[in-house]
Amino acid sequence: MRALGATDRILEVFTHKPPEQTGTVKLDRVDGHIEFNDVDFAYPTRTEAHIFKNLNLTVPAGKVVAILGGSGSGKSTLIGLLTRMYEPNSGSVYLDGVELSKLDLTWLRHNIGTVTQDATIFQGSIRDNILYGDLDATPEQVEQAAKLANAHDFIASFPDGYDTTVGERGTLLSGGQKQRICIARAILKNPKVLVLDEATSALDVESEQLVQQALERLMQDRTTLVITHRLSTVKNADYIGVIEDNHVIEFGTRDEVLQIDGGRFAAYLQQTKMHE
Questions:
Q1: Dihedrals φ, ψ of 25, to 5°?
Q2: CA-to-CA distance for 83 and 104, rounded, in angstroms?
Q3: Least buried of 120, 203, 251, 259, by fewest C-beta within 10 Å?
Q4: Structure pTM?
Q5: Pairing of strands 247-252, 98-99
């Protein structure tokens, strides 16, 4: 019985068909303006349950947009659509006015960096894990990325430094250390579009502060989509969107969404007693 749940997930992965590499366009310049236009989406194995219906969302270039919503509202699904892990059933997603399906897939994903709650760490050295962001980076660039990510000090404390083997899934590292390695990787990658998916939700207070400092450096001069259910992470966002009932029900600056009569964001604030 314990295996049944895992088997369903394994079959889902096996039967998933990745998007075809039909696009060939590589933009000479990326500003990072993102648009979701009338997007309908349901997962292939659950076509009767729509995640999105007529979803519209604009992420202006160079701005920080925080997306809030309850569990299962589809916040993380936005990432799958943006990186073309999935295709909309209808509607379109655009980057700088070009439909994603027309863009070269490898090029697209190279220009999008992600930092998620479940930090992905590979068996190997710390250096190798950071280099995954840019295999051609120099040792000096790796170290600079680690410094910006608040990771250099703890790396230097290991006897083997950057050559320390972290173990499978980074068993040698704490949660906060894993996140800072992933941030260093993203800094090295230097994407124009950044997606943060619950990046600090599983950390203790001290680790969260170090990671948040690193994220603020990473977010500079980039279009950033912050996926979260925690109101503490949206204070510095330029815009806030709330997803509910398969679409974006509220969108605007913090003041604008707070002024919505009976608005969900205002209710979230009241429920968590986070009035300023």
A1: -75, 135
A2: 11
A3: 259
A4: 0.82
A5: unpaired
Q: How many angstroms from the chain centroid is the CA of residue 24?
A: 24
Contact yes or no for 258/65 (Cβ under 8 A): no
Which letter, b or e, does each residue of 116-151 get, where b requires 16 or more Cβ atoms within 10 Å of its Cβ? Answer: bbebebeebbbbbbbbbbbeebeeebbbbbbbbbbb
Give the C-alpha distances (Å, rounded to integers) separating 62 from 31, 114, 252, 253, 272.
Answer: 7, 16, 16, 15, 29
| Kind of pairing between the strands at 223-228 and 64-68 | parallel
DSSP track, the chain: -HHHHHHHHHHHHHHPPPPP----B--S-----EEEEEEEE--GGGTTS-SEEEEEEEE-TT-EEEEE--TTSSTTHHHHHHTTSS--SEEEEEETTEEGGGB-HHHHHHTEEEEESS----SSBHHHHHHTT-TT--HHHHHHHHHHTT-HHHHHTSTTGGG-B--GGGTTS-HHHHHHHHHHHHHHH--SEEEEESTTTTS-HHHHHHHHHHHHHHHTTSEEEEEES-GGG-TT-SEEEEEETTEEEEEE-HHHHHTSTT-HHHHHHHHHT---
- Per residue in 7-61, pLDDT tens? 887 887 788 776 666 788 999 999 999 999 999 999 877 666 789 999 999 999 9
Domains of the chain: 30-111+231-276 (3.40.50.300)
Q: Check: CB of residue 81 under 8 Å from CB of residue 242.
A: no
> Residues for the chain: how many in total?
276
